[in-house]
């Protein structure tokens, strides 16, 4: 099984490359001249996009083929007070450059909207806010010219006193969204409310792929052991990706009018992995990653998974990823069922 690793948003190895510079609304209002304040927001956003491109080039140079964009690329983008502001004309070229680099280098990228993007909510105003947040993320991907293989990963949301009712409400409200949103979404199990089984059921119901977060499963397993997760649940999770791959290829073939030279779309399953930080809260992410624990999971699913992409959610980002690769080199030398492919990928044999 081929496994590629990625990191989230920030680089700990590049200087002056934050993709998340921002401005508070309080500071925005203090500027007095609204048009000048909007131009400043655009300059900050352009800096964030330029930093993002630097990070992508750094990742590529390190053989890292996965990356999650910061959701804070455009400051105040979803704030109601600037709802009439269209930042995209000023940022068109910067977005285009990122999209071209991603596609030319075949990188796998994504977004993860923040926890307030919830479609299980019973509150109409929160639902509208969630739609605005989804619009923001989808529009950025469209500005980059990236296809529907590039996803926005979300959680189901809160239980609001009745998890069954909230889950059903999520399905109903999500299915009412435009296809333009729904076709950009993956669903992830969370560490407090909706476990892997429940998230899989929702993903199957709304026909989107599921991202398995291994750490979240450890702290919210719903009574499902690691062995059962790998032997019974994982094949069903992987199937959600196969079905999405099938949908995308069918749409591509239809768009091409049945031409034989249509490029086959590949969309391997995706997981998240992090290690718990030492201390009283097992949900917190550690700076680095436990290579042995990750390898155990990977080897348990290798027999039924030709390729898998793993987003690492360690606090030290790309630094932790490269440290993990060093740990895998040690395990490879010991004959532990892993082979180093390049600076950001490994090959794993089944247990």
Automatic annotation (TrEMBL):
GO terms for biological process: nucleotide-excision repair; response to UV. Keywords: DNA damage, DNA excision, DNA repair, Endonuclease, Hydrolase, Nuclease. SUPFAM superfamilies: Xylose isomerase-like. InterPro entries: UvdE, Xyl_isomerase-like_sf. Pfam families: UvdE. GO terms for molecular function: endonuclease activity; hydrolase activity. Signal peptide: none annotated. NCBIfam families: uvde (TIGR00629). This is UV damage endonuclease UvsE. It comes from Paenibacillus sp. BIHB 4019.
């Amino acid at each position: 099984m081929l496994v590629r690793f990625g990191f989230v948003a920030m680089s700990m190895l590049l200087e002056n490359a934050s993709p998340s510079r921002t401005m508070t609304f309080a500071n925005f209002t203090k500027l007095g001249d609204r048009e000048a304040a909007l131009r400043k927001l655009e300059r900050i956003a352009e800096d964030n996009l330029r930093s993002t491109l630097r990070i992508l080039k750094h990742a590529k140079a390190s053989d890292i083929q996965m990356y999650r964009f910061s959701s804070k690329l455009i400051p105040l983008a979803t704030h109601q007070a600037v709802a009439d502001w269209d930042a995209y004309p000023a940022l068109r070229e910067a977005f285009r450059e990122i999209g071209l680099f991603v596609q030319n280098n075949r990188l796998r990228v994504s977004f993860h909207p923040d926890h307030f993007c919830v479609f299980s909510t019973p509150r109409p105003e929160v639902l509208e806010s969630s739609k605005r947040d989804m619009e923001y993320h989808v529009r950025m991907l469209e500005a980059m010219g990236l296809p529907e293989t590039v996803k926005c990963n979300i959680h189901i949301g809160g239980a609001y006193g009745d998890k069954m009712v909230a889950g059903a409400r999520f399905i109903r409200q999500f299915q009412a969204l435009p296809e333009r949103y729904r076709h950009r979404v993956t669903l992830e199990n969370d560490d407090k409310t909706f476990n892997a089984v429940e998230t899989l059921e929702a993903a199957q119901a709304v026909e989107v792929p599921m991202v398995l977060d291994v750490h979240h499963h450890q702290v919210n397993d719903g009574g499902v052991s690691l062995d059962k997760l790998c032997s019974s649940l994982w094949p069903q999770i992987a199937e959600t990706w196969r079905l999405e791959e099938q949908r995308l290829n069918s749409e591509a073939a239809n768009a091409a009018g049945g031409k034989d030279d249509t490029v086959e779309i590949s969309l391997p399953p995706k997981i998240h992995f992090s290690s718990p930080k030492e201390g009283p809260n097992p949900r917190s992410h550690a700076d680095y990653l436990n290579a042995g624990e990750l390898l155990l999971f990977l080897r348990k699913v290798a027999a039924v998974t030709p390729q898998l992409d793993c987003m690492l959610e360690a606090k030290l980002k790309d630094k932790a990823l490269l440290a993990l690769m060093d740990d895998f080199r040690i395990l490879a030398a010991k004959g532990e069922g892993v082979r180093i492919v390049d600076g950001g990928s490994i090959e794993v044999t089944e247990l």
